[in-house]
Structure formats: structure tokens, C-alpha cells
Write a structure and sequence with these properties.
- By secondary structure, this protein is of the alpha/beta class.
- The chain folds into 2 domains: about 60 residues, no CATH class; about 200 residues, Vaccinia Virus protein VP39 (Rossmann fold), CATH 3.40.50.
- The chain has a 7-stranded mixed sheet, sandwiched between helices. A 3-stranded antiparallel sheet has the order 1-2-3.
- The longest helix is centred in the N-terminal third of the chain and has 16 residues.
- It is globular.
Length: about 270
């Protein structure tokens, strides 16, 4: 009979960040990594190895929130709440689709704000399992699917939910959620629904390789997206200790993404 693998608990974790003594040593954000000391040994993980990170209880919070001081869920919750108050909208009225839901940290903030109906969407089954383990009460449903090519069951569940708000926090621009997946989620959102999203400032420049800059500018120019808040803030620290700045948008859906836009944007992004 094989010996069961030792259980991993948050208190067992030791996280080691790489030392970067010169700018040339600093990895790009999508190449950042750490070492995690577990009862089974030391493991090296890229920060974007979310499938593995989510399987280790407490690691996501320890790495991004304790070690690197991520503040995005709190910032987005505060900005959205301000705009809802100004508009005379109660958070209890929202039906929130949380795109790139992970283990539910954003949804936990939204529940604290007063949101009553939340559905999480993520491409990773490990994220769904982590949310069920870490925050079992924050989502009413959790849909694991690829929104670049969703199967009919996913489409039916998300459309039937009838979201009036779309959140996506710290998940855009690095290939985790490409523009087409965001556009699919935006299509499910009700007319005049709320959008609360963050994106690194690098992905809003003319040099952006992801296509998000083109998509957001086109949505804004065509009147599909009305931005009511554009707030630049420190998302978290890089492994070098330098701040990583993101834009937090609070916006309203005022129209649809045009037919053919995504094909043109993907061709231009190349």
C-alpha cells in the first residue's frame, strides 16, 4: 500500500522570491517566479502557473497578497461601490459575472459590498476546486469553460444567469484571458450593465501585443463602452520590489462589440 502524500497547510509554506540586484536581472511580469518549500520538497513555480498554485492551499494569498501586497480586489470594490452610490444603485441588485474568478478573492470583496448573486468563470478546473475549498459560499455557480470557444452548455448557463455586472481583475493581457474571451463575456452582459476591470498600463499603449488596447479604444470610440472611472493605482509589487501600475476601469455597457471586430484586432495584433 502506498504512503499517502502529506497534507499541505498554509502554515507549512515558505515562499522564496528571487533576488534581483540589477534591472537586467528582473524578469518580465509574465516570467516572474518563486520557490515554495513544501513538506514534499522545494518547488519552483512561475507566477502564471495558476493551475499548480491553486492546488496548494494558501499559496495564492501568501504569494500575491502577503509577499507582494496585491491590492486590486479592494481597489476595484471601492471604485465600483462609489459609482453605484452616485448612480443610486444598490449592490444587492447586481448579478455579477466574475471573469477569471480564480479562488474567489474578488467575489469575497463583492459579497462584502453587498452583491447577492455571483457566478464565477475560469478556464481552469483547479480554480473552481480552489474556490470551493477556500471560499465555498461566495459563488452561486462556477462555470469552467474556454470563452474563446464556449460549448453550448456554458453559453446556456451564463446567458440564463443574466448578468448586470462584469468583473475581471488582474486577469487581462497576458494570454490568460485574451480579447475574444473578454468580448464573449461582455456579450452576455445586459445593456447598461456595469463593467469593473483592471489591466496593466502596458496593454493600453500603441505597442500592446495582446489586442486589448485596440479593442478597448474601439469599444469606447463606437460608444459600446462608457468609461466613468479610469484610476491608475499600484496593483502589487514586482519581485524586484518595484511597483506594478494598472488601470482600474468602472464603465457601463452602452452597445455591442461589432461583428468582425475581433477578427480585425487579432489580425492586427498578429
Amino acid at each position: 500500500m502506498s504512503t499517502p502524500a502529506p497534507q499541505i497547510h498554509a502554515d507549512d509554506l515558505e515562499v522564496r522570491l528571487p533576488r534581483t540586484e540589477a534591472r537586467a536581472d528582473t524578469p518580465d511580469q509574465d516570467e516572474e517566479w518563486c520557490e515554495v518549500v513544501l513538506p514534499t520538497g522545494t518547488e519552483r513555480l512561475r507566477f502564471h502557473d495558476y493551475d499548480r498554485i491553486f492546488t496548494i492551499p494558501g499559496l495564492y494569498e501568501r504569494l500575491f497578497y502577503t509577499e507582494l501586497h496585491c491590492d486590486s480586489p479592494r481597489v476595484v470594490r471601492g471604485l465600483l461601490q462609489e459609482r453605484l452610490t452616485e448612480a443610486g444603485v444598490s449592490p444587492t441588485a447586481l448579478r455579477v459575472l466574475d471573469l477569471g474568478a480564480g479562488n474567489g478573492m474578488v467575489a469575497e470583496e463583492l459579497r462584502t459590498m453587498g452583491a447577492q448573486a455571483l457566478v464565477g468563470v475560469d478556464i481552469l478546473p483547479e480554480a473552481e476546486a480552489a474556490a470551493a475549498r477556500d471560499r465555498p459560499d461566495v459563488y452561486d455557480d462556477y462555470v469552467v469553460c474556454d470563452l474563446t470557444d464556449p460549448d453550448p452548455t456554458c453559453v446556456e448557463r451564463l446567458r440564463d444567469f443574466g448578468p448586470t455586472a462584469l468583473t475581471t481583475v488582474a486577469a487581462l493581457g497576458f494570454g490568460d484571458i485574451p480579447p475574444r474571451a473578454f468580448a464573449t463575456a461582455f456579450d452576455y452582459l445586459a445593456q447598461d450593465g456595469w463593467v469593473a476591470m483592471t489591466i496593466k498600463d502596458d496593454f493600453l499603449t500603441d505597442e500592446d501585443p495582446s489586442g486589448f488596447s485596440l479593442l478597448i479604444r474601439r469599444m469606447h470610440a463606437a460608444g459600446a463602452l462608457e468609461v466613468v472611472t479610469d484610476h491608475v493605482y499600484q496593483h502589487r509589487l514586482a519581485v524586484s520590489g518595484q511597483p506594478l501600475h494598472y488601470h482600474a476601469y468602472i464603465a457601463r455597457k452602452r452597445g455591442e462589440i461589432g461583428a468582425g471586430w475581433l477578427d480585425e484586432i487579432e489580425a492586427a495584433a498578429g
